Please model this.
Amino acid sequence: MSVDTTQAPTTHKALLEWVSEIAALTEPDSIYWCDGSQEEYDRLGAELVAAGTAFKLDDSKKKNSYYFASDPDDVARVEDRTYICSTEEIDAGPTNNWRDPAEMKAVMTELYRGSMHGRTMYVIPFCMGPIDAEDPKFGVEISDSAYVAMSMRIMTRMGEGPLKAMTTGGDRAFVPCLHSVGFPLEEGQADVPWPCNEEKYIVHFPEDRAIWSYGSGYGGNALLGKKCYSLRIASVMARDEGWLAEHMLILKLTSPAGKAYHIAGAFPSACGKTNLAMIDPTLDGWTAETLGDDINWMRFDKEGYLRGVNPENGFFGVAPGTGWSTNPNAMRTIDGGNSIFTNVARTLDGDVWWEGMTDENPAELIDWKGEPWTLESGVKAAHPNSRFTTPMDQCPILSDEWDDPKGVRIDAILFGGRRATTIPLVLETSSWSHGVFVGATCSSETTAAAKGKVGVVRRDPMAMLPFIGYNAGDYIQHWLDMETLHETPHLPKVFYVNWFRKSDDGKFLWPGFGENSRVLAWIVGRLDGTADAVQTPVGFVPTLDAIDRTGIEDEVDDETLAAVLKVDVDEWKQEIPLIEEWFTKLGERFPKQLWKDLEDLKTAL
Ligand SMILES: C=CCn1c(=O)c2[nH]c(Cc3ccc(NC(C)=O)cc3)nc2n(CCCC)c1=O
Ligand SMILES: [Mn+2]
Model:
């Protein structure tokens, strides 16, 4: 088909050529250039409602919001279908799926051939991070999904602004992100509510800085600005350009004295990362503000401090477990409307619900499969991985600096995990390389939300394992190299936190949630040199009196606090072989320095 790009609202040569090439391959019925306007968003929403794909929620409950239910076989990221196609397999490394890039391109080109028959090809220009950044990271997603176009407007800076900025000062580089649900429509064939293909590929070509996704319409597989671009491709850019693209929340904490600190945190799933990002501190005089709940790009400033920017424009949060008692600020954000809800449950009066939103479960709902649901149904009303997609600027505790292109100075980095034993509530590392060691050993127990057995300890370095765009050993080495990439490095202090320690009879020892503000206060105290700690073989741990327990003295008595802070040599001796096994898995490029640190730890225990 001869593609008419004369209507294209841009003169960007490489972009026009790419759009023509893809249209000739996928053969859509039409090409639509997204402008990112509210009118366009409303029009796409109305079209999807008319097509039976989306439900418009009641405006008195969630204004200007839509409900989508996916195909039950398209409900989460597909890690076994996610590839890093570097030229050399070793550069993808032992923790990524790899295939020869030329081979992969040949296979996928055939899948894309004619894949957009009967559909509109949306051209979605976007920018990760503020458009007026010193080095704005542009992308263009081509997709045959209007759900993707709507979602990208919430999750990224999308449309006319980025497109214009892409030709300011000449044609700027952009990451081409190609996406098709892989469901062509023949003449007169009716569409299905959630088109997708059982054959799925989520593929990254790091040396081309390109992303090709096929067959899935869901989340991290289809909204390519998030995991695919801002972590996997950006981590490769960061390695080459001397910065860090990390899977972290960014939190601003202001002390009773009025001093502000910025804390970044990397947590595997099911550790409550979004809950921490939006924490409501119980400790008097402390205030918390959010800059982001998922991605943090950290670059050195002139003085050698790391400054963090959240490249996203919205929250793509796990709905179940988000409630008025666990994360009231998230609920207030969502109550602002302008959201897309995917695979949650619907109420009979045009609202949404999910497990953990409220203490009482509603008597009847429509579950994520569209079936009537009652308390006796015995199944989850919302899918465990169901999501809210909501604009960041609706968050009541959003920091003013959230979209400052200069970012904020990161004073501390927290690595976290869900461990019933061994890891104390909080420990401070004694150097940058000790901090990298701790990050590399990060682990977390599986929970019912994920597949497989519950309680299995999985390693997840820097909580980045599914998102490292290159060899994991090189990635850990890059963290160590950060000390050498500035002449006067003032790197953040690294801490390891664990909210989930249990007593012998399986009860959580620490109240968690807003009470974690007491741990954050100790961390700030350590940054200021005003808080007490005791040295242990695994790092500095608070003394009992160093944790402010005002108001929870009964719930957390001395015995309980001692138990949750305990560094038990025998438990740590059992940890050593697990760490050895893990370091071995990370392959021959895993830094020798950390093997040495492990030997030192063995000796110290
Ligand atoms: C800033 C909050 C971090 N955080 C926590 O600090 C936390 N701690 C726990 C364990 C826990 C669960 C229940 C209670 N208490 C009662 C009364 O149920 C206490 C601790 N769960 C937690 N969760 C939820 C994890 C699943 C997403 C959590 O998010
Ligand atoms: Mn995440």
Q: What stands out?
A: The mean pLDDT is 97. Residues 122 and 275 are 34 Å apart (CA to CA). The first helix runs from residue 13 to 26. The longest strand covers residues 120-128.
